[in-house]
Amino acid sequence: MEMVVVAPPASGKLEDLKRRFFATPRQAVISLLSLSVIVFLVWKLLNWAVFSAVFDASGGPDACHAASGACWSVIAARWRIIFFGLYPYEEQWRSALACVTVVAMTVLSCIPAFWTGRRIALVWGVGAAVFYVLMKGGLLGLGFVGEEMWGGLALTLFIFVTTCLVGFPLAICLALLRRSELPWISRTTGLIIDGVRSLPLISILFTFAIVLPFALPQWLQGDKLYRVILGSALFFSAYQAEIVRGGMQGVPRGQEEAAMALGLSYWHRISRILLPQAMRNALPATINQFVISFKETSLVIIVGFFEILASGNAAYGTGEWRFAYVEVYAFIAMIYFVFVFSLSRYGAFLERRMSVGER
């Protein structure tokens, strides 16, 4: 009797790959051509960025002119300007420590043990105070450094954090006011929200930085940096208010009615029943709004602030490094990517932990 050898079943992943990209001869040719183009582009990028690049700053710009790859030596030579901007050279350790403080605040906020209102408020309250003292000084023997000297990554983080800290509570207030049963309150709030959202952020920043002082008395004008942050927070709150309101509309009406039947006060219903579920529903859109706000900090360069993008412009702005602008912008893009990607991954972790989208 003849023995029949049965071939083992094909791997599930290989079978899926074949079905997706090699189902027909035409599809196989297109897939192989696409793969060849991708491999070629990746090789060219690696050759430019790594294999033929210049990393040592000791050779100066002349070494970069002689090479065919990227000139990363501009980063080694000008990294202080990129990270610290106009901040005094001998005090730049304070700016670096302030950035570390913001990162530490964010990491602590990601730990579930800190997920209570009081602990989060304590972490961000203490962290913000430490950041401000480190940057401005005037206490604990630290030299005074005015806001006009702040710059680089520390200024970008300061604008982002304060925008969110001011704008998020304001967004919740606007969302609650727009849900008011009194028509004149809800309609007025809606008009404010729609009015702010109809304006580009640049025009709001310019108005708060340049125009607003002409309409206010001297004692009420404040520093330009804080006026810009207030404008940015107002813009953030208008969008975030609609996100929060959408999350509230996703909470079944019966839950609020049940809370009312139990005799809970308005603020207890809002803080213990409605808002927790609304924030859970609105989590993906909220994370997206945080990401957008972080990237929009680069717009403050329009009104004269030396944030990280402006610092990058200054890093290659000198005559000897003017040719290396691509490398400087690529380095700044990587900084943005690290922060934004970390924020989005944390948002995905929260969605899995809270089972967002599951019923």
Automatic annotation (TrEMBL):
It comes from the Bacteria. GO terms for biological process: amino acid transport. It comes from Mesorhizobium waimense. GO terms for molecular function: transmembrane transporter activity. PROSITE patterns: ABC_TM1 (PS50928). CDD domains: TM_PBP2. This is Amino acid ABC transporter permease. Residues 153-344 form the ABC transmembrane type-1 domain. It is found in: Cell inner membrane; Cell membrane. Belongs to the binding-protein-dependent transport system permease family. HisMQ subfamily. InterPro entries: AA_ABC_transptr_permease_3TM (IPR010065), ArtM/GltK/GlnP/TcyL/YhdX-like (IPR043429), MetI-like (IPR000515), MetI-like_sf (IPR035906). The chain crosses the membrane at residues 28-46, 93-115, 122-144, 150-177, 198-219, 328-349. It is a multi-pass membrane protein. Keywords: Cell membrane, Membrane, Transmembrane, Transmembrane helix, Transport. GO terms for cellular component: ATP-binding cassette (ABC) transporter complex. NCBIfam families: HEQRo_perm_3TM.
